[in-house]
DNA sequence: GTCTATAATATGATAGAC
DNA sequence: GTCTATCATATTATAGAC
């Protein structure tokens, strides 16, 4: 029992090093994508040896999985439900089209302010890495379900997919391609310009809503 | 002069083999992206040796450049101007917002029907390859300029960028990610759903148009 | 708990044979 | 004009030393 709380235990030490590695990996995967990020570069950036990274995470695939599994699935209605402790993340919310629009815009506003690096790692890699693509599909599905639920139209699923694709394009060009107009614009500017666009997709024409599945 | 036109000249033979290699490369770059496409795989797919590919194109970078330089820059107003021999590709066209919307939708419709593989090669690779990213920026610029010209608003450049980002997202999810809803939808369905969205971005509110740059 | 040494493989590129 | 052989390098991954 020498120095009961002074020095970190081996487990704490390991956890700390693991975190440094994960942080370095997250950043590099987000900046360069899966293929162009090497174990060596991650280790060097974390100030450790490449062998240690392998020892802790087993393989590059598993390291990438650990980095991207922490990516928060964007909950469309997180904001609309007040963001309190009440609503579960996966819970479906029978919102109106207007609520869906505003919730989606709020969610987009957060992402335009500060998109998590783990999400950028997925977005950067998903066109050339099957695991990343799966991760994206899985993460996007609840959002798609929520939107589809809220859109009163026979083609609600396609409308939801278009909304998702639009957000994908905007985030990709702002953060990954860094096209100047989109990278420099304020979240508010973008939100304001996209609101009518989103409204048109969440709100179906009157006859469409009454229509059949054809 | 034995058999003046019967057998192909060496130049013709070479050109033919080059074309086979380019076709194979185009397809593989579009399917797997730059990094995951190997010279060996291209050669094998073209039915030749890897050394020959290097001999003809010099390097992998140059091969990719040859594949992607043939990607047609989408001209927004190609359709609106009648598609005849009159308008140059780079010529600016002082269209109205409504004309811009319809031209952009027509252009998108073509791409939703049959996006060229050389464009897909660029789109697939541009998040992880600087050359591909430059190619995309260069190809998108004329379209952005045309759109900005046609949108009567102080934030016309941001509106144009958003339109471009939206198209990018839709094309990427349809062809590269192959998300089912977007991959299965008909061009007409997508066009119809996006028309109001595009209209809202090309058409500024009345006071905005009269406003200053603030 | 961390690092060194090395295996096993794959790649872009080059030189030269036929 | 096309292919064989090879170089030089870089990577993930493993085994074992300290």
Automatic annotation (TrEMBL), chains A, B:
<dbReference type="Pfam" id="PF17920">
    <property type="entry name" value="TetR_C_16"/>
</dbReference>
<dbReference type="InterPro" id="IPR001647">
    <property type="entry name" value="HTH_TetR"/>
</dbReference>
<dbReference type="InterPro" id="IPR050109">
    <property type="entry name" value="HTH-type_TetR-like_transc_reg"/>
</dbReference>
<keyword id="KW-0238">DNA-binding</keyword>
<dbReference type="InterPro" id="IPR041678">
    <property type="entry name" value="TetR_C_16"/>
</dbReference>
<protein>
    <submittedName>
        <fullName>TetR family transcriptional regulator</fullName>
    </submittedName>
</protein>
<dbReference type="InterPro" id="IPR009057">
    <property type="entry name" value="Homeodomain-like_sf"/>
</dbReference>
<feature type="DNA-binding region" description="H-T-H motif">
    <location>
        <begin position="38"/>
        <end position="57"/>
    </location>
</feature>
<feature type="domain" description="HTH tetR-type">
    <location>
        <begin position="15"/>
        <end position="75"/>
    </location>
</feature>
<dbReference type="Pfam" id="PF00440">
    <property type="entry name" value="TetR_N"/>
</dbReference>
<dbReference type="InterPro" id="IPR036271">
    <property type="entry name" value="Tet_transcr_reg_TetR-rel_C_sf"/>
</dbReference>
